[in-house]
């Protein structure tokens, strides 16, 4: 394992990747772009490293020795709320969907294109600017309370367990309550990329958020799907 411990003010990225060449090239590229980087090659140490270092962002390979990326992601999500970007080698989007369901915030397919990786990372690290869409740092809809200052949400007084990406999506939808947000708008705001018409990551994330905010997945009343367009957050559910 390798650590870069200089410049503590920089965003700290933990790369969990057993491909030594890929990990090294990625580390060098990210350090050249102002990040502080730690590399961990063994999946067996992945959970411990994430919870000990608590990095600003984790780049997590899907296939690892010791413990696979899906298992690591699932195990840390109760304690680590930072963004997790998963690297997937397979073309089947089932791996990507499973990663998102386990709590990953985004994914980049291999072979990794450095500029694409950097753009996705910056989008994940960029927090939603509440002044962009709402002057209110706290939004209340019945028994649902969403606070952008603390990046937390509560349902009937109970704190909701949300990943960083789930909160960003919930806040974006809630702060635009009453207006249909297209998938193109959501992708641009949250991921910094254009919607390709096939990516299911936002749909998966909405399906994870709905039960957490007390919405019926089969007949949602709070976050409604608008066919061929996007999603509508209803003010009064």
Describe it for me?
- With 237 residues, this protein is of the alpha/beta class.
- Helix content is 36%, strand content 22%.
- The strands form three sheets. The chain has a six-stranded mixed β-sheet with strand order 1-3-2-4-5-6, sandwiched between helices. Strands 7-8-9-10 form a four-stranded antiparallel β-sheet, covered by helices on one side. Strands 11-13-12 form a three-stranded antiparallel β-sheet.
- Helix 4 (93-101) links the parallel strand 5 and strand 6 (106-109).
- Helix 2 runs parallel beside helix 3 (69-76) and helix 4 packs parallel to helix 9.
- The longest helix is centred in the first third of the chain and has 13 residues, at 20-32.
- Mean pLDDT is 87; it is low at 3-8 and 128-134.
Label this structure with key terms.
six-stranded mixed beta sheet; alpha/beta; 36% helix; Arc Repressor Mutant, subunit A; four-stranded antiparallel beta sheet; 237 residues; disordered N terminus; 9 helices; Rossmann fold
How would the blueprint of this fold be written?
Layout: E1 2-3, E2 12-16, H1 20-32, E3 36-40, H2 46-53, E4 57-61, H3 69-76, E5 84-88, H4 93-101, E6 106-109, H5 114-125, H6 130-133, E7 138-141, E8 144-147, E9 152-155, E10 158-159, H7 164-174, E11 180-182, H8 183-190, H9 201-212, E12 223-226, E13 230-233
